[in-house]
Amino acid sequence: MSTPPPVVNANVPNHLVWAILSTLFCCLPAGIVSIVFAAQVNGKVAAGDIAGAQESSDKAKTWAWVSFGLGLAAIVIYLALMGLGMMSSGMNSY
């Protein structure tokens, strides 16, 4: 008989909530990558691959930040273009 893998009490955060929120509110493609890595964490911990779980956790966090940054950059660019558009339409009315 084969024995089950030993139970490892590792506290590796999966960052799944942060990944989902950054996907919904920031940047969809980068957020999906973050969700994929976040979903791998618990399975790797259960298999006893703590190093792999930590690597997936770090990648999930990194991609969530990338998603947040891209979403923030898109908002800033949008607001800047809207401001420029309002300024140019305001100049044409005189």
From TrEMBL:
Keywords per UniProt: Membrane, Transmembrane, Transmembrane helix
Transmembrane stretches, start-end: 16-41, 62-84
Entry-linked InterPro entries: CD225/Dispanin, CD225/Dispanin_fam
An example Gene Ontology CC term for this record: membrane
Cellular localisation: Membrane
UniProt superkingdom: Bacteria
Protein name: CD225/dispanin family protein
Origin species: Marilutibacter maris
